[in-house]
Amino acid sequence: MTYKLTWLLLFFSFTTLNAKQINYDSLLVEMKKSDTDEAKFFLNTHFHLDSLVQAKDHEAYFNELTSKCSELIQQHINEVSYHAMLNRYQDSYNLFELTNEELSNYKIKYELLNGQFYANGDQIDQAISSFNRARVILESNYTNENKQLQLVIYQHLGNLCSEQFRYREAIENIHKSFEFENKNEQKYATQLSLLAKCYEQVNNFSNAEKYFEEAIEKINIICAKNNDENDILNRHNIYDSYFNYSVRRNNLKRSKELLDQLSQFIDQDYTSTKHQINRAKFLMLADKNKEAKKTLFDLLNKKHLDEDDKKNIYILLLKIGASEDEKVKSNYHSIIDSAFHLINYNDTISFDYCNNTDLKYLVKLLSKAIDLYSPNDKAFKYAQALYQCLAISRSNIITDTDKTFSGATFKKYYDQIIHTAYQSNDHNAVYHYIKEAKFYALENTRFKKKKYKNTYTPSQQDSLQQFNATISFLSKELNIYPDSAGIGTALNNTRTIKRKFQNAIEDEKILTIKNNIPNVFKKAADQLEEYQCLLDYYISDNHIYCIYIDGQTQKVSQKKITADLKAFITDVKTKDSDYEKHLMSVSRLLLPKINFKKNIIIGPHGILNYVPFDVLKDKENIKLLSKHAISYNYSFSEEQKITRSTNNLSIFGMAPSFDTLCSELAFLDYNQDELNNIKTSFKNLVILGEHYYNRDSLLSKIKGCNIFHLASHSIIDNSNDHNSYLSLGETCISDSTTNKIFIHEIIPENLNNELIVLSSCDSGHGNQVTGEGVASLSNALFSTNVKSIISTLWAANDKSTSMLMGYLYKHLKDGKSKDEALQLAKLDYLDQVSTTYAHPYYWAGFIAIGDMSPIASQQYPVLYLVIGSCLIFFGLFKLIK
After folding, report:
1. Domain extents for the chain?
2. Is residue 641 a contact partner of residue 753, using CB atoms and an 8 Å limit?
3. What angle (nearest 5°) sits at the alpha carbon of residue 494, between those of residues 493 and 496?
4. Is 834 helix (H, G, I), strand (E, B) or coil?
5. CA-to-CA distance for 744 and 784, rounded, in angstroms?
6. What is the pLDDT of residue 259?
């Protein structure tokens, strides 16, 4: 099947080529029927070429054909005519008796024509390939007569490779061109300048300066001999390039020398405006921003200013504003308003004038402007613009093209935007920016893990495999037949199609950046049931933002972070501690004064990932656990998955052994009892409890069940989350290489379980990853399509866990939702234990994450309802009778 698909794609590549290389004879018939200028041109050329064939003058024939093809390229006449001519060129080799050297020369000219055609059409990769084929043919048949051709090829390759940012290839080709260059010509100076620019791009600054100096010296000699207009223009460009390089390198002395020399060149080509812009750059380099600003503002007042000059002026003003330390509002106001000319600030934002460096300057400038104008409407306007800039940079990160800002820098700017929106009392904007900040952090995490490179669908993966197979086949064929233009062109076509295919996939991931803010409250409320509410949080450097949403109410609050929060988290997971000392202050900090719905969904952030909200008290001083079922959702912005309950449950339970003689991990006294407690609720279901499993056999068993329950140890490595693992038991005969499941082994799997219960120490604990909770074992499971997870926030007590799990499965069997089952299990546990074991350390660490729908139907109440209905019906029937 793969071979068939490969050959189909190969056929497509060649038919694409043949579609362009129109049959010459067919076109000739059409041209004879036409009276257009193109037809006359084509027919005159045809008859002249035929006469040269009759005369057997191959040199004149190919020169004429080359000349006419070049003319078609320059005049941009219909592409069909050009390809027909080119097709005739390739078919003409057999019309004459040619020596090998003559044949090679004509093939070289054919490739040069192809290269020029592609270069004119901005198909640079194809142009480079054509010139490279010409180079290969020429190098295998080199004679002194070919010196000029060699020069042309290397010059073209140097220019084209630099355009495609292939700087090392460009450097190599330019150096080779120097072996054939007439060093007295103006073009040599141009090539020296281009070589210097390429060396700068590969950070070889000593060579960059060396070749700039040589270019300056050479162009001055040429201009002294000739007063040619092109030479003078070229001198302007070389000096200007070297000046800008010196500014970038902070070389004040050389910049001043070059600027003084440039001042002597002011004429029609090198205008006074361009010189003043360069002067402003020099003043900025000399830390004379005030003079630079005056120069630039004076230029803006000029009439008939060139658009490119305007662009450069605005960008320089932007850079000045972003780098200044002065706090004068009037100066910033004028600079910011000037910088905003770079932005089409209506419904969308455009950065046609800004590259990534300019974007970075604009972000810094807007951030300063927000600080200066806060807390008024102008500050909020700048905050909106700052968000747009960050969104642009985010799209670059997603497509792997740039990373202008670090994750910490992004968060700093998002914190500023959120705070400004809150000051403007736009609560919808606050929540929108909070969701975006959390989602960006998730994007950034996935970017670091290179997940975006593995998100192709199966059909997309198949297509890419076909492209790769075809490219591999054509590459091998081209090595065997290097002179084959058809294979080379087909290879380029296939690569181009593959690139467009990949770009189309990536375009789907790029953010749509709009200035209007959607109603995020409504979107969140629409995902909630009538009995549910959402508490979503965001932590900045100084504040906690709490967003409460239900079907009727939306509320946003901002409070300053207190030291009590960290103290409470430490106390609540430490047995025998006085956790109530900070309980009320933390409850007031985190909970709004509102009547919550029965089921509360928590969207934690930062340190709040480690807070057991069950323990907190509402405005009536009652623990949330008493009245509310609580679940956690780290990505509530995504659509919630609703699953149907099922009566065909299969449960796989595992309680591995830990031999104290051979294991560093503690023996678990009650993990077997835990499985036995579960069996009391699901008597008709098989729960397997085994002493030891290796990784591979365990994964296959997990995939075959609805519920997987693991009563074991989990080990968290806070320095590297990928080293965190679930232990599958340690005995004197176990294999230490296969008795662990690591995070990086879990992520690629497709488990698709209804519920996984990690009844293990620290299964929910890990490094904080904003936007997706903690980078823990439990969270890693969500990437495997597991619908819901119950895990722990801290080291679980073996005995209390055994009791709690028994109650949990009892309520799951009765058809309760997962969050309600966990709530009732905790209440049952607290009813049965003494005050000592009622400390949150023993029970509050267990949390439910994800889809909370029931896993089993409530069979018995339905059965009773059916029986009751039948009895009532029977009674009524008897009564009537």
Report:
1. 32-98, 460-500, 520-632, 651-861
2. no
3. 65
4. coil
5. 11
6. 87
**What is the chain's percent helix, strand, coil content, to nearest 5?**
60, 10, 30
Residue 732 burial (CB count, 10 A) = 8
Predicted pLDDT at 28: 72
Instruction: Please count the other Cβ atoms lying within 10 Å of the Cβ belonging to residue 325.
Output: 6
691 token code pair: 């002493």
pLDDT score at 865: 46
- Which token pair is 168? 């090392």
Peptide bond into 375 cis (omega under 30): yes
* Angle, CA of 452, 455 and 459, to the nearest 5°: 150
Query: Measured between alpha carbons, how far is 450 from 453 in angstroms, rounded to an integer?
Result: 6
**pLDDT value at residue 328:** 43
**Residue linked to tokens 């003084």:** 260
Judge whether 847 and 634 are in contact, CB under 8 Å.
Answer: no
* Distance in angstroms (rounded) separating the CA atoms of residues 426 and 428: 6
**Joined tokens for residue 596:** 């919550």
Q: What angle do CA 811, 816, 820 make, to 5 degrees?
A: 90
Residue 443, both tokens: 């994007």
Contact in structure between 759 and 807 (CB atoms under 8 Å): no
Neighbouring C-beta atoms of residue 107, cutoff 10 Å: 20
pLDDT in tens, 550-570: 988 999 999 999 999 999 999
CA distance 251 to 257: 10
Eight-state DSSP code of residue 76: T
pLDDT tens-digit readout, 337-380? 555 555 443 333 444 444 556 667 778 778 887 887 777 777 88
Separation between Cα atoms, residue 200 and residue 189, nearest integer Å: 17
Instruction: Please indicate, yes or no, whether the overall pTM of this predicted structure exceeds 0.90.
Output: no
Kindly list the distances between the CA atom of residue 119 and the CA atoms of 103, 122, 163, 190, 194, in Å, as whole numbers in the listed order: 24, 5, 11, 19, 18
Q: Which of 49, 117, 58, 107 is nearest to 83 (CA)?
A: 117
Distance CA 639, CA 655 (A): 35
The two tokens of residue 289 are 């921003």
Q: What pLDDT was estimated at residue 512? A: 35
What is the rounded distance in angstroms from the CA atom of residue 612 to the CA atom of residue 574? 13
Beta carbons of 687 and 706 less than 8 angstroms apart? no
List of residues 6+ apart from 214 with CB closer than 8 A? 192
Report the C-alpha gap between 105 and 447 in whole angstroms: 50
Q: For residue 200, which amino acid is it?
A: E
- What CATH number is given for 651-861 in this structure? 3.40.50.1460
**What is the bridge-based pairing of β-strands 707-710 and 755-758?**
parallel
Q: Which residue type sits at 505?
A: I
Other Cβ atoms less than 10 A from the Cβ of 706: the count is: 18
The string of pLDDT tens digits covering residues 722-759 is 677 777 777 666 666 667 778 777 777 778 888 988 88
Q: Spell out the alpha helix ranges (H) of 179-204.
A: 186-201
Q: Which tokens in the block code for residue 810?
A: 């009892």
Rounded mean pLDDT for each run of 10 residues along the chain, 881 residues in total: 38 37 65 76 79 81 79 64 73 79 82 80 80 82 70 87 85 87 74 91 90 91 81 86 89 89 70 82 84 83 76 75 52 56 42 54 79 79 82 56 61 91 91 86 58 49 69 69 64 67 49 56 88 93 92 91 92 90 94 94 89 93 94 62 52 77 71 79 59 65 82 73 74 65 75 83 51 55 82 83 89 92 95 92 92 70 48 50 50
For residue 391, the SS3 value is helix
Per-residue buried b or exposed e for 450-480, using 16+ beta carbons within 10 Å of the residue's own CB: eebeeeeeeeeeebeebbebbbebbeebbee
Which region, left, alpha or beta, applies to residue 287 given φ > 0 means left and ψ of -120 to 50 means alpha?
A: left
Q: What does the alpha-carbon distance between residue 360 and residue 804 come to, in Å, rounded to a whole number? A: 53
C-alpha dist (Å) from residue 403 to 360, 406, 694: 10, 7, 41
Contact 318, 339 (CB under 8 A): yes
